[in-house]
Specification:
Elements lengths: L5 E2 L1 H7 L5 E5 L3 H6 L7 E2 L20 H10 L7 E5 L8 H11 L5 E4 L2 H7 L28 H7 L7 E5 L3 H5 L16 E2 L15 H9 L8 E5 L5 H12 L4 E3 L3 H5 L11 H8 L9
Parallel strand pairs: 1-5, 2-3, 2-4, 4-5, 6-7, 6-8, 8-9
Helix pairs in contact: 4-9, 8-9
Length: 292
């Protein structure tokens, strides 16, 4: 699929080695160093940018100079052509998290490799092993606050009807309904949230589905393009992939909540809803079922 926010494998291979190109591999470090990576790709994961003092792991480091330093070490300038990739079938939407973060920081030339490492290797394209050490970049952040949702703002939104704002929960349906999860104080979801699982937007070859198909899926859930849309999950990673998919589909008013359920569930003044009856039915424990 041709789209300004995507690059296909053939186009990327043709551009390898260009001086302004920065390819970021957001898979695990072992996969990058020992399993092979796209030639010239640098390595970075969302964990590198997390607030080191916060319990909720998804919150960004409030010290922007530290984030800038990491990005400069990757060789990134403000005018770099950045391409992000992962293994789309073996992650949590990590490429979406890197895309959202760079967009929030004001970078404007970012694309995701359509099909990622899955398609690249299936097509037997070139790869290399080991660490890549680029020249130091000069990136300077100019944060776009509208792309980052905060807990207190969401708490204010859910206190009253908000037809102009849609809150999307990108987790599994079990988590949404209230399944207990280790390390999470309270299960459930933010009141009025619409469940949109993050992992329903890929074709069998790991490429992204056609935007028209995605738009139909979203509109069927009542999500309209004119709304202000806030995405969340557990730590703002799966929701950042949903953010990217919505950007791809043309939704203009988007934000990601990096604190997400890790933060929300720890604030007992933040309201929580769950549907244990629906959860029991999904898990096969329907108390209303008759037993012989």
């Amino acid at each position: 699929m041709t789209h300004p926010l995507l690059i296909d494998t053939e186009s990327l291979q043709q551009q390898l080695g260009q001086p302004n190109l920065v390819i970021i591999d957001v898979r695990g470090k072992a996969a990058y160093e020992f399993g092979g990576h796209i030639p010239g790709a640098v390595h970075s994961t969302w964990h590198d940018y997390s607030d080191p003092t916060a319990v909720p792991k998804g919150l960004l480091n409030p010290d922007l100079s530290q984030i800038e330093l990491i990005l400069r070490r990757l060789g990134i300038n403000n005018d770099s052509d950045v391409v992000i990739y992962s293994n789309p079938f073996d992650n949590w939407g990590d490429e979406g998290r890197m895309f959202w973060m760079l967009e929030y920081l004001g970078h404007t030339r970012i694309r995701v490799l359509d099909g990622g490492w899955v398609k690249w290797t299936a097509e037997k394209r070139p790869f290399e092993h080991g660490h890549v050490s680029p020249s130091m970049g000069t990136f300077k952040a100019s944060p776009m606050q509208s792309l980052l949702a905060l807990k207190e703002d969401i708490k204010a939104i859910v206190r009253s009807p908000h037809p102009q704002t849609a809150i999307l929960d990108a987790r599994s349906v079990e988590e949404f309904l209230g399944k207990e999860v280790s390390g999470i104080p309270r299960p459930g979801h933010i009141p009025t949230a619409i469940h949109v699982a993050w992992n329903g937007f890929l074709n069998k070859d790991a490429t992204v589905k056609d935007p028209a198909v995605i738009k139909e899926m979203l509109e069927a859930k009542g999500i309209r393009s004119g709304q202000d849309i806030i995405c969340y999950c557990t730590g703002g990673v799966r929701s950042a992939w949903l953010y990217f998919v919505l950007r791809l589909t043309g939704y203009p008013k988007l934000s990601n909540y990096p604190g997400s359920w890790w933060e929300w569930s720890r604030d007992f003044a933040a309201p929580v809803e769950k549907d244990l009856h629906a959860l029991q039915k999904i898990l096969g424990f329907d108390p209303s079922a008759k037993h012989s």
